[in-house]
Structures are given as C-alpha cells and as structure tokens.
Amino acid sequence: MVFLRSHFSFEPPPVLRGGRVYLRPPVMEDYHAWANLRMCSRDFLTPWEPNWPADDLTRTAFRGRIKRYMRDMSDDAAYPFFIYDLTNDLVGAITIANVRRGVAQMASLGYWVGAPFAGQGLMTESVKAVMSYAFGQLRLHRIEAACLPSNEASRRLLLGCEFVQEGYARRYLQINGTWQDHLTFAKLNDDPQS
Q1: What was the pLDDT predicted at 4?
Q2: Which one-letter DSSP state was computed for residue 106?
Q3: Looking at the domain assignment, is residue 176 inside a domain?
Q4: Which of 72, 95, 108, 122 would bridge 80 by S-S if both were Cys, CB 3.0 to 4.6 A apart?
C-alpha cells in the first residue's frame, strides 16, 4: 500500500459531472454570477458560515480568492469547485480542503448552496461527484465533514451521501461570529457503497 506521493505535478482538476450538475474550478469570469448568488443568499447562508469580511463581495477580494485557489491546487492543499446546473446557472460551491498527505491521506469537505437552489438535491449530486474525484484521482483515504447540530439539511445531505457520523466537537468552528459545536462525519474510500 502506498501512503506517500513520490511526486506531485499540478494539473488543474477536470470538469466533474453528476446528474444535473457540473463542477469546475472557479475563474475570474465567475465573479458576477458568484457575487450575485452570494448577495441574494446572504440571509440564507449567514447562520451557517463564518462572518463575511466587509469587502467579501468585491471584485478585488474575488481576485485574491482566485489566486489563493490556484495556489492551493498547485500545492495539493485544496481543490475548490463551483457548481453549475445544466442551464449554466451557478448553484453554489464545494471544496476539498485541508488536504493532508503522508500517512493520513485525508481532507475536509466544505460546501454551500445558493438560496434559490436549496432543497433540490443538487448538492447531493455535487458531493457524490467530488467524492469520486477525491477517492479516485486524488487517492485520498478519508474525507471529513462537519455541520452545526441545528443544520438538519446538511446532516441529511451527509448521511444521504453515506458519511458516518463519528462525533460531536465542542466549539469546533467560529460560525456567524460565535464558536459553535459541530457534528463530525467521515467517509472512507473503502466504506461499503449502496
């Protein structure tokens, strides 16, 4: 069994497809769609996310975000994807983050969906597509995720994508300005598939 990558050469992630969605790394041309979706979804997203910086929706901040994404992918540290439906509307985003190699071969999963697209199963299709990429091309062994105990939609999403709830982390992440407890989940590359 190989635990270490002997050499990593950067190749941008491919376009991932899953049912009614396709996922690709963000580019600067996504700015307007992203800013509009985030703005119209602000009230919907605020209870589940860290506080937004004052300049978060500006073109300058987005440019910095794109540069960070490119660096993270090049460094094998994170793999961000924007999610589009088949009519080319931006739906949300999903990221394989905090990639740890060596004996761990694991990462964290983060995601958000815009308010107009919530509850339609598009994020479920996106998670499944990203998991296939994480376990296949990236050869990760474990993907972790967490959600607030009150976020029933996120809990159902993770369980529906065959994550296993493993624990309860006290004051795990600062969400909406407050350190909050989270439910913790994980999925392994060799877990039984339904």
Answers
A1: 44
A2: E
A3: no
A4: 95
Determine, yes or no, domain membership for 57. yes
The tally of domains found in the chain comes to 1
Determine contact, residues 85/122, Cβ cutoff 8 Å: yes
109 belongs to a structural domain:
yes
pTM score above 0.85: yes
Q: What is the domain extent for residue 54?
A: 16-141
Distance CA 184, CA 181 (A): 10
CATH code of the domain covering residue 97: 3.40.630.30
1 assigned to some structural domain? no
∠ CA 156-159-164, rounded to 5°: 145
CA distance 32 to 58: 10
Tokens of 29: 């041309």
Confidence (pLDDT) at 69: 96
* Residue in the structure block whose two tokens are 């598009």: 122
**Residue 9: predicted pLDDT:** 55
Residue 3 pLDDT: 43
User: Which residues, including other chains, have CB under 8 Å from residue 157's CB and lie 6 or more apart?
Assistant: 123, 124, 127
- Amino acid identity for residue 23 in this structure: L
In the predicted model, residues of the chain with pLDDT beneath 70 are: 1-10, 194
Question: Measuring CA to CA, which residue among 127, 125, 129, 139 is closest to residue 190?
Answer: 139
